[in-house]
Amino acid sequence: MGSITLEHVNKSFGGVEVIPDISLEIADGEFIVFVGPSGCGKSTLLRLIAGLEDVTSGRILIDGEDVSRAAPAQRKLSMVFQSYALYPHMSVRGNIAFPLKMEKAPREKIDQAVNNAAAILNLTDYLDRKPRQLSGGQRQRVAIGRAIVRQPKAFLFDEPLSNLDAALRVAMRLEISELHNKLKTTMVYVTHDQVEAMTMADKIVVLNAGRVEQFGSPLELYQRPANTFVAGFIGSPRMNFIDGAEAARHGAHTIGVRPEHLVVTPEGGDWSGVVKVSEHLGSDTFLHVDVDGIGALTARAPGDVPFRHGETVGLSPMNGRLYRFDAQGLAL
Amino acid sequence: MARAVSTRRKLAFTALAWIVALVVFFPILWAFLTSFKTEGTAIAAPPKFLFFEWTLENYRTVLERSNYFRFLGNSIITAVGSTLLGLVVAIPAAWAMAFSPTRRTKDVLMWMLSTKMLPAVGVLVPITMLFRMMGLTDTHLGLVLVLTLINLPIIVWMLFTYFKEIPVDILEAARMDGASLRQEVIYVLTPMAIPGIASTLLLNIILAWNESFWTIVLTTTQATPLPAFIAAYSSPEGLFWAKLSAASMMAIAPILIMGWFSQKQLVRGLTFGAVK
After folding, report:
1. Residue B50: count of CB within 10 angstroms of its CB
2. Most buried in the list A128, A157, A317, B29, measured by CB within 10 Å?
3. Which residue windows are transmembrane per the record (chain B) (predicted)?
4. Considering only CA atoms, which of B192, B225, B191 is closest in space to residue B211?
5. Do B175 and A83 touch (CB under 8 A)?
6. Cα Rg, chain B, nearest whole Å
């Protein structure tokens, strides 16, 4: 079991309030992703759950038990760090065995757990190596191995993939998702990468300036963003926002439309503009269009559209795909 | 073509390095050679380089005339003593500054280092007076104290830099993994800090061993370490180059041998922060 509850959690460093007031329910077995721009407090929130920082006020409950003042080890959670944080003087075996050794587990139990973890993570051939003799991906797997041997109530991941190159990141993303399917243990995962958030999460917590902007499934966030911040943060390329007269025409302070929901035509359309840059990705083409009286809009068109720099095109939002926001940026 | 040029450059730099090394090393080499000459040959002009009658006479005389092993014993006591005392004070200090820094940590470090910028002579009078009043003149305790004090800033700085290199993440990982503070110190921190502590220890023994100003000024007969032993041979009766050289060789030999055996550790320690 591993449900985590945050009740009015507040954290200040000195006089600076990093997290004003967060309440959150994480059910057992869920894969939760905290996402947000750097400095939004997502890592701090994770460290509060881990017990590496103390809450200034509020409560943290794990399986209904108040652990707000408990030491990290007593919370029975495991953490995977961005820097891997492996013990450099110990072999892979020593690293993975470390949590069990601290528990003073019997020798056979340690060996068995280490071999199990190594088998799951393809590390069997590397057990006697030192961390410095491993590649980035292997090191990250050792860190995960060290986390799973304890059979924790929940795993905490602090931007675990950001030190890896792009290809490896995609592969490790899949591995972590598979691991979650296999272990069915609660996972709390922090990232600034919305693609990671969208692909891995059961539920996403979008954080901004220490506040929860929205909490929901990836598709909920994509389809029904609560405000302009979430609308702009989730989805790539980001949503186009239009203010002023055009928005007022739709009865809103701001309207938003995603690049993939703009239909591009050679002429006509709701808005007409000049192609500034056309980025061909093969599968898609991103058109950056300058529209008179509105500004720059990005459209996601099929890979084979012929439009080039300097050409005039027409843009129209798809039916029902226009988002409306009020003056506070909240969805209407 | 490019390769030929780079080889030539490499040769030039190698030659330059050898020349610089020889220039630096020459006084020691010369003292070494002189220590095997007779007093007459030692001052011969033009000087004789290798082809002279080698003799161990100087070493015999030096050993007869003064109690080398007492000086050696004093040097070991004061160098090792001051280093251990320094580490006892500096490890917690550097530890605290590296792992829980405050706004003034940088200032404290700078202030400690600034004490090394004052010439020793500047505090000669107050220190000799304090030593006389407290009865510390010519005692092992006195020397250990003064050597600890003059080298403490360097020990703290070195340890601080090493401890700083230990990533906080790793300590937090240990905490997450259920290590108690005691287990964290034994299994994680100490193994990671030992190379740094070892090279600080070695360097400090060398510094304390070679300190001559305070050791000569603050001792007379009882606690005199090896630098005073050398100085005794540049006495008012006149300079005896050959015996002075022999005494110098005997004074530096122990530390040279220790440095030789621990050079790997020393170099590794001194470049700890440089290569990652």
Report:
1. 6
2. A157
3. 12-33, 76-96, 108-131, 143-163, 184-207, 240-261
4. B225
5. no
6. 23
Give the SS3 label for residue B26: helix
- Cα A192 to the center of its chain, rounded Å: 6
Q: What is the DSSP string of A181-202?
A: HHH--EEEEEES-HHHHHHH-S
CATH fold of A4-226: Rossmann fold (3.40.50)
Handedness of CA B234, B239, B245, B247 (dihedral sign): negative
3-state helix, strand, coil in chain A (%, to 5): 30, 35, 35
With CB atoms and an 8 Å threshold, state whether A79 touches B173: yes
Q: What's the rounded Cα separation, in Å, for the pair B181 and B165? A: 19
pTM above 0.90, yes or no: no
Identify the CATH assignment for A237-325 out of 2.60.40.10, 3.30.360.10, 3.30.230.10, 2.40.50.140.
2.40.50.140
Write the DSSP assignment of B104-119 as a string of letters. Answer: THHHHHHHHHHGGGS-
**Cα–Cα nearest to B165, from B273, B87, B271:** B273
Query: Do B262 and B270 form a contact (C-beta atoms < 8 A)?
Result: no
Please give the single-letter amino acid code of residue B196: G
* Residues on A contacting B at a C-beta cutoff of 8 Å: 50, 52, 71-73, 77-79, 81-83, 85-89, 98-99, 101-103, 146, 150
ipTM: 0.83
Strand A16-26 with A323-325, pairing: unpaired
* CA end-to-end span of chain A: 39
Distance (Å, rounded) from C-alpha B13 to C-alpha A106?
59
Question: What is the pairing mode between strands A312-317 and A262-265?
Answer: antiparallel
From chain B, pick out residues whose CB is under 8 angstroms from the CB of A48.
Answer: none
Token pair 């100085």: residue: B231
Read off the pLDDT of residues B234-261 as tens digits, 9 standing for 90 and up.
766 667 888 888 888 988 888 888 888 8
Q: Show Cβ contacts of residue B56 under 8 Å, excluding neighbours closer than 6 positions.
A: B36
Q: Do B183 and A102 touch (CB under 8 A)?
A: yes
Map out the domains of chain A as residue ranges.
4-226, 237-325
Under an 8 Å CB criterion, which residues of B touch A? 167, 169-170, 172-180, 183, 187-188, 191-192
Give the mean pLDDT per block of 10 residues along chain B (276 residues): 71 94 92 87 79 85 85 91 93 87 89 86 89 90 91 91 87 91 86 86 89 85 84 71 87 87 73 46
Under DSSP, the state recorded for B234 is S
Q: What are the pLDDT digits (tens) for A14-73? A: 888 999 999 999 999 999 999 999 889 999 999 999 999 999 999 999 999 999 999 998
Chain centre to alpha carbon of residue B61: 28
Sign of the four-CA dihedral B37, B41, B43, B47: negative
Strand partners, A57: A10
